[in-house]
Predict the 3D structure of the following.
Amino acid sequence: MKKPLIVQKFGGTSVGSIDRIYKVAEHIITAKNQGKQVVVVVSAMSGETNRLLGLAKQIDSVPDARELDVLLSSGEQISMALLAITLNKMGYPTRSLTGAQANIMTDNQHNDAVIKHIDVSPITELLLQDQIVIVAGFQGITAKGDITTLGRGGSDTSAVALAGALKADECQIFTDVDGVYTCDPRVVENAKKLTVIDFPSMARMAKHGAKVLHLPSVLCAWKNQVPLRVLSTFNANTGSLVKGDKCLLPLCGLALQRDMCLIKIAVEALPTVKKQCGMIGIEIWDVIEHPDWVGIVVKQDAYSKLELVLQGRVADRHSISLLTAVGAKAEELAKSSCQLLLDNEIVTIHQKLDNQSFTIALFPDCVDSAANILHHAYITLSEAHDCLQKHAFLN
């Protein structure tokens, strides 16, 4: 009978020291001893990518993109080799592979490449030999043989893409949090860990600021229907499972995006500004239309790039934050949410409805309070109500 196959991914904090690498090895050995085939994807040790980038920028403020990929990819190679050395020492045959050795083929976009195809035969051959396989995340290779890196969250994407190509039973993302929460626990103290969340809801949460999983990895897992589990490296738990195509919760979570900017421009300037934003690679998160002006919402750090493009077209500019509610009944709750915030003296700048979600634009100093108010009303009290109903039914 074929053994179950899992892909485990460990982030930079998880492999941040030799002691932590031993802890990672214990997770891998546990899975191996349960009779599973194990493929592992690792990030660079925490701080290593920034260190390497800093070295490059000491030489050139805008380093050559190809050579930067060659440099940055070495961070993951250090992690994979140290972990392989550890597992071999502990008596578990292990082989490490770079992105190129694992045949992770990408396009030619240096520093932000996209995986096009994975030939899994080298990994499959090693698994047939009962070896553990460690793959360097965040990297691949072009058809011409150039090393590429996958951009922010690239190791998560590597892991999910490999899980899909290998038809893995599950992809496990080990990190420094123990699952997916209904809101950032640092903002909402009584945020709840979700046992299960569906792919569409997780994708919306990731898109709108939830940092536990990067959006490309969620979309890749959804496309390939690979169950995705978020676990803590440091605490024994079952984490949160991301699977399924249908949202069953009225409101499953709130996501926050800080450091956003609302730029008001003349109505007639909008087509030109949108075109120029596209040309210089700035994403417009939303367009707010009024009779006399139009507002575009972009990330705060994009404004400096936009200043040259806008040249006198700015009527006004405000720092804002976005709060997005995601769930099966999110759209129905949008109107009452704005009224609830107003009752608590929190003014909503703008509201946008989307499929099973709504986003509220707020001034930055009140976004945390707004998150707590909506979480209490629509998640905490809703769960308490459901619990009472269940008890009443059982009695």
Q: What stands out?
A: Residues 62 and 221 are 33 Å apart (CA to CA). Residues 367-394 form the longest helix (28 residues). The chain has a mean pLDDT of 90.
